[in-house]
Design a protein that fits this description.
By secondary structure, the protein is α/β, with parallel strands linked by helices. 34% of the residues lie in helices and 18% in strands. Bound molecules: flavin-adenine dinucleotide.
Length: 497
């Protein structure tokens, strides 16, 4: 009889694991609380003709998606047409400088020379880039794309050598500052840790790998939108026989003698499986579905689990095009550190927020009506905290963000052109996807929540319970959760053989 595997959640990690396990011959059922797959990688299509990807917009480290499709005996190019975006994005500094960031060394050199007028920093850029490239090539196979079963998998002569020679443990901002004197370049090469929901002042410098994913490997976009990735994975999973059950929230996983015994769907029916793979956010799942403290399953066991920041979102359909904006645009606040401290230390809404604006119809005009822009705005904010009552504070914060867009991006008439709008707060991340503390990016990526120290993908107390997704190994972001799905599938397969 084929082993029956239940997967809780159809996020990107759940979809990846489902397809891989079904291909290996397991009988796989995916339960998803929402009506559609993708989780945070969702899509919004409006009656006015705007299409928004509501979560991830940057496809980084394409090799991870390619590798997954290869393992599934599929060619990624048969499923989507990918565009490499050049320049990668435009950065807007508070001193009025506009800088085009690129994977192209000649263009970067020109931008540093002409826009920053800082000839000396060209040499620093080349040295830093060489460091980043080595860091990336060593980190991914040795620390990211691997399962940790014991401490020696993490602490061994080779890893200690890499940790020491690449000085992976100081803060990323400090590392970047050791190369650059120009604060604008320090910001440019460190802010990427915000994709992991951690401040660059706190993130270990090993997370320079994310900077490299952008500046070395480039940013891709699937024509039609990021949701193509979700649709393609669901399709392949179905081709291998995965059974998808939408609108099916798992409300409890019952335990019996050191094993999970059954799960309850929508507080009503109960079903039994051999293996339970949880893609729902790990700390939420431990607390709510398994009735356990996540701490019990983490090393070291002192101290609370730290979660990442969150995101306030605005999806705006406007009947006008702001042509000076590219597909991706990053707006820095005047005081980089203060903005980050508002989010991570003081946990308040920043009064001068940094933000990111995505206009996907620059790359695929079919995503907005002719002459219009689909404008996605992501503002980094604290995860749920008693300091912010979103019900009360959201209208004023929305005004602050629109004012900043007007001042910093010259979108002075934006309010007159909005024909569609929707906002999304940390409360919505919590209620729609069961994200712990409404944090958009899962558990934080501090040193003691990375690699071997991150909650692992197999329960320490329940023999047949596994995890995949942003809050387990290796971490947050599309490439990481795809790897997470593969690692969990490999571990289950090994344990079952
Ligand atoms: C605003 C935003 C922007 C981002 N931008 C980028 C980007 O540009 N590039 C990038 O690489 N990454 C980005 N990310 C990160 C990326 O989206 C995530 O890392 C990834 O989508 C997480 O996938 P996952 O499978 O871990 O979890 P999820 O997407 O959270 O999937 C988990 C699924 O489980 C379901 N679920 C939860 N509880 C239950 C239950 N009890 N029963 C049944 N189902 C349940 C949820 O509904 C969800 O569908 C972004 C994230 C956000 C929020």
């Amino acid at each position: 009889m084929r082993k029956r595997i239940a997967i809780v959640g159809a996020g990107l990690a759940g979809l990846s694991a489902a397809a891989l396990l079904a291909k290996k011959g397991f009988d796989v059922t995916v339960f998803e609380k929402n009506a559609t797959p993708g989780g945070r990688a969702n899509r919004l299509v409006t009656p006015e003709g705007f299409t928004f990807d509501t979560g991830p917009t940057l496809l980084l480290m394409l090799s991870s998606l390619k590798k997954l499709f290869k393992k599934l005996d599929r060619d990624l190019n048969d499923y989507m047409q990918l565009k490499l975006l050049e320049p990668s994005y435009r950065v807007f500094y508070s001193d009025g400088t506009e800088f085009n960031s690129s994977t192209n060394i000649a263009l970067m050199t020109k931008e540093i020379r002409e826009k920053l007028q800082n000839e000396k920093e060209i040499e620093s850029y080349l040295r830093f880039f060489s460091y980043l490239s080595r860091l990336y090539r060593l980190t991914i196979p040795h620390f990211v794309d691997r399962n940790y079963r014991r401490l020696s998998d993490f602490i061994n002569p080779k890893s200690l050598y890499y940790l020491a020679t690449l000085k992976m443990l100081g803060s990323l901002y400090r590392k970047v500052s050791s190369y650059f004197e120009d604060e604008r370049l320090r910001m440019l090469f460190s802010f990427q840790t915000m994709y992991l929901g951690i401040s660059p002042f706190e993130a270990p410098s090993v997370y320079g790998v994310v900077t490299y994913m952008e500046s070395g490997e480039g940013i891709y976009f699937p024509v039609g939108g990021m949701y193509k990735i979700v649709e393609s994975l669901e399709r392949v999973a179905k081709e291998y026989g995965v059974n998808f059950r939408y609108n099916s929230e798992i409300t409890k996983i019952e335990k019996e003698g050191g094993r999970a015994a059954s799960l309850t769907i929508n507080n009503s029916t109960t079903e039994k499986f051999d293996v339970y793979l949880v893609n729902a956010d790990l700390p939420y799942a431990y607390e709510t579905l398994l009735g356990e403290t996540p701490k019990k399953n983490v090393v070291p066991q002192n101290g609370d689990l730290k979660t990442s920041s969150s995101a306030y979102m605005m999806y705006l359909g406007v009947d006008k095009q702001y042509t000076h904006l590219l597909h991706h645009n990053v707006v820095f606040s005047a005081d980089y550190k203060r903005n980050l401290d508002d989010i991570f230390e003081r946990q308040v809404l920043p009064d001068d927020p940094a933000f990111y604006v995505c206009i996907p119809n620059r790359s695929d005009p079919s995503l907005a009506p002719e002459g219009s822009d689909a404008i996605y705005v992501l503002v980094p904010v604290p995860h749920r905290t008693p300091n912010v009552d979103w019900e009360r504070d959201e209208p004023a914060f929305r005004e602050t963000v629109l004012k900043r867009m007007s001042e910093r991006l010259g979108m002075t008439d934006i309010k007159d052109h909005i024909v569609y709008q929707k906002t999304f707060t940390p409360d919505d991340w919590a209620s729609q996807y069961n994200l712990w503390k409404g944090s958009a990016f899962g558990l934080s990526h501090s040193f003691f929540q990375s690699a071997y120290f991150r909650p692992q993908n197999k329960s320490k107390t329940l023999e047949n319970v596994y995890f995949a997704g942003a809050s387990t190994v290796p971490g947050n972001g599309i490439p990481m959760v795809i790897i997470s799905g593969s690692l969990a599938a490999a571990r289950i397969e090994e344990d079952m053989s």
